[in-house]
Amino acid sequence: MDPSEQDGNGAPDGLPPPPPVPPNVTPIKAVSEPEVKKVLRVPMARRGLGTRGTKVPILTNHFKVNVSNVDGHFFHYSVALSYEDGRPVDGKGVGRKVLDRVHETYDTELAGKEFAYDGEKSLFTVGPLPRNKLEFTVVLEDVTSRTMEMLALEGMEALMRVIAIANALRGQESENSQEALRVLDIILRQHAAKQGCLLVRQSFFHNDARNFADVGGGVLGCRGFHSSFRTTQSGLSLNIDVSTTMIIQPGPVGCVPFSLATEVFDLLKSTRFTLKQKSKDGEGEYQTTEVTVYDYFVNHRNIDLRYSADLPCINVGKPKRPTYFPIELCSLVSLQRYTKALSTFQRASLVEKSRQKPQERMSVLSNALKINNYDAEPMLRSCGVSISSNFTQVEGRVLPPPKLKVGNGEDLFARNGRWNFNNKKFVNACKIERWAVVNFSARCDVRNLVRDLMKVGEMKGISVEAPFDVFEENQQFRRAPPMVRVEKMFEEVQSKLPGPPKFLLCLLPERKNCDIYGPWKRKNLSDFGVVTQCLAPMRVNDQYLTNLLLKINAKLGGLNSVLAGELSPSIPMVSKVPTLILGMDVSHGSPGQSDIPSIAAVVSSRQWPSVSRYRACVRTQSPKVEMIDSLYKRVSDTEDDGIMRELLIDFYVSSGKRKPDQIIIFRDGVSESQFNQVLNIELNQIIEACKFLDENWSPKFVVIVAQKNHHTKFFQPNSPDNVQPGTV
């Protein structure tokens, strides 16, 4: 094309004319498709308060907060840190040291203002600083290497975000109140940081050996406290609770198991490095010699090494420039978090050592409030915050226990949150057939155990056939690793049984938390789909066997008891129209396992109007993702491979070909910040799954979030006991 025919952008000057319209054709005006508006759902305000039950006074670990500076505002500044040569600062905890030094050195430039710093990029003041942009230079000494670093506080720049302190006083949650509360919580974190605490979100841990509990394996449980501001129906409160985190046992490294060491290299005696001599040779060059780490410390540094010659040495340097130390010269600093998963023994030990009676907990919390002396905290003072020292008293209600029905239509009454199946039969008793016993070296009379199980089973209405066989563990494998023991036992079972068993009763060695348990369950349930029940037969009596049969009957598809309202049927709302009840949760790997997939699980009720029978559905998803992403998974125009389709079809088939008109969702383990995601991501998928099955089907939904990891605790006034079961 001739360049003269192009415009300045190199495009042709004009487009060819449109084709002529035939005389008998009327052009149709192009209309853009209407945009589908997405509905954004938000949590509903509750319609009112419950009234059922017996009214009781309750104390709670919330302490009322008064704020006198209701006209004040938080000003938000962005913080940028760099070294003198412009490199960004990324060391953990450096930011707080820099800001502390700025506070000491530049008080006048800051107009004497206190500030709250989050340790990263946000800083808040009450009222504005003298200028919108400020720059400071400070000098920090590195205590470990005795070096001085010049650091520039590149800027504290106003973000034009002003948050009214009065927002924090609102009883209702809103975006504004959340912002104000976030600032108040940052003040609490800063207060704890200045006391040298380890900070884990809003939980704070002092370096005090009295707070440490040894759980084994070089790991300690460190008891501290949680502290955060909360909005409540009666205004703002400070919520204080006891909290525990895991830390590595401080002290000499030689006393700690090597699994905790970050970089363990070769033995001290055999690890060599090049040592530069102090004197120069004839050509003015420093001479070098090869020495072992052991030789260097003993002969060159004259340090007496008592026990680490045959142990590994620790490399505290970098891959290309290692720095080796003998283990006995190293000590682990206190308050270093241990984030790996605890072993079964460690978990059991932690539970045992963390137990507290209500009165003891109240005393610890009162003490924590006193020690922290928040009323003297400068930033809280400038907000006009004062905190009551009394536990807040509220009105509670104890709900009546639900009425249960067991076999033969008999009533079962719960007392103090417990019920007993002695002399009662199950509603639907299963049959235990095509089963066997495997014994991993537990010392017990297996024949007697089986005989007693059959006798108690008969009393409960369960028919227990004689087992096919009892498989005793081969003695040569007793000291083998757990996985090997399980494999060998399974091989033995498979070789002897005529076909796959329906049920395996597994006897574990006589101790709690057996390491065979996990591999055995995985092998049976995940690999082969075999129902299994484990027991450690120490004190086996009729009560123990009854409890065991409750589990076995449920696992084999039986039904132990039902709510009396199911049989009538008279459960409010649920019994009137077909109603599906869902329970949803996501399990994640422990904090130290960032690459393990998360597991989403959903259980759903079946056989309406029953609410006691459930089906489970499980999927894996990306690590640490809390929102379930496989509730609806369209793979073609006619195919949905999601969780919900499977569960909805099961409800329909098991409930006399009825679709649910109502769906009640119990969602576990999501924080307040994720409520909107549950409503707009998960609920959306569930609605899409329903529409995919039937475009004209519009069930009603209610989503109930169950939070267990909150820090609100209840106490009975003037009583050493816990609050009664059924207290709300």
TrEMBL record:
GO biological process, one term: defense response to virus
Top-level taxonomic group: Eukaryota
InterPro entries: ArgoL1, ArgoL2, Argonaute_Mid_dom, Argonaute_N, PAZ_dom, PAZ_dom_sf, Piwi, RNaseH-like_sf
Domain Piwi: 503-728
Keywords: Repressor, Ribonucleoprotein
Keyword Repressor: yes
Domain PAZ intervals: 231-334
CDD domains with a match to the protein in the record: PAZ_argonaute_like (cd02846)
GO molecular function (one): RNA binding
Annotated spans, Disordered: 1-27
Gene3D superfamilies associated with the record: 3.40.50.2300, paz domain, Ribonuclease H-like superfamily/Ribonuclease H
Gene Ontology, cellular component aspect: ribonucleoprotein complex
Bias-annotated ranges (Pro residues): 14-25
A Pfam family recorded for this sequence: ArgoL1
Family: Belongs to the argonaute family. Ago subfamily.
Full protein name: Protein argonaute 4
